[in-house]
Amino acid sequence: MIIVIPMAGLSSRFKQSGYNEPKYMLSLWDKSVFYYAIHSFKAYFNQEKILFVCRDICNTKAFIDGECKKLGLQFYETITLEKETMGQAHTTLLGLEKSETKDTESLLIFNIDTFRPNFSLPITTDFSEIDGYLEVFHAEGNEWSFVLPDKNSNKVLKTSEKDRISSLCSSGLYYFKHTRDFKEALKFSMQNNITTKNEYYIAPLYNILIEWGMDIRFFTINLSEVVFCGTPRDYERLKQLNKKDIV
User: What is the superkingdom listed in this entry's lineage (predicted)?
Assistant: First the structure.
């Protein structure tokens, strides 16, 4: 399995709020936002490769090397992009292609601005029998990626972006049994211009795989098990809280 962390976003909301660094570089408690996001996968350090896909700004590659040293993470690769991308899915695709990741490798994608303390893959399913899964929680609001569930199982019937088709909201963690499936679904989206606000998001790709007859599942966690740091408001709120209560 390869764990991909797309981090080529513009951090536009942070820039507009006066922050001078990308959000993943910001200090939080005694570390950085990056540190806590990646620490989520401590159980898989130096077992599964972690691929960082970033833009060539603010000396990010050197920053990543320094943070990975603090984390004790050795099995990783950083792909640096020269241009802006067309969204998180596009960033992931470029990273996979440049890293020459095998199509048969399983793929786990997660955000750089979200913390998932003590993450581990679900143990309640046989991964050889499914083609992918999303991690979800119940929440209010319309700002999430959503899952429409089968009434009698944890099978995904449909996903949506910023369209509340259920109360099941994505935590931003996505699994694909084969990297090839992710790549082919995204290339189909690009060929048919299937975007959300002119960007390519990851959750909608599962709709294509479902149409192709693949088995996509969801696994539910408690909202308290995931920590968001994607907006200035989230960041400033976390700074006021006790680290021990969060991670």
Answer: Bacteria
3-class secondary-structure state, position 192: coil
Distance CA 134, CA 240 (A): 30
SS3 201: coil
Residue 202: is it exposed, middle or buried by C-beta count within 10 angstroms (0-12/13-18/19+)? buried
SS3 171: strand
Q: Read off the pLDDT of residues 15-35 as tens digits, 9 standing for 90 and up.
A: 999 999 999 999 999 999 999
Please tell me the distance from the alpha carbon of residue 108 to that of residue 132, in angstroms, as a whole number. Answer: 9
Domains delineated in the chain? 2-241 (3.90.550.10)
Q: What are the Cα distances from residue 129, in Å, to 132, 167, 204, 214?
A: 9, 26, 21, 10
Phi-psi region of 172 (alpha: psi -120 to 50; beta: other; left: phi over 0): left
Contact assessment for residue 146 and residue 165, using Cβ atoms and an 8 Å cutoff: yes
Answer whether residue 129 shows pLDDT above 90: yes
Give residue 15's Cα distance to chain centre. 21
**Where does 110-231 have alpha helices with state H?**
179-191, 205-211
- 168-202 pLDDT, tens digit per residue, is 999 999 999 999 999 999 999 999 999 998 999 99
How do strand 49-55 and strand 76-81 relate by DSSP bridges? Answer: parallel
Res 244: pLDDT: 87
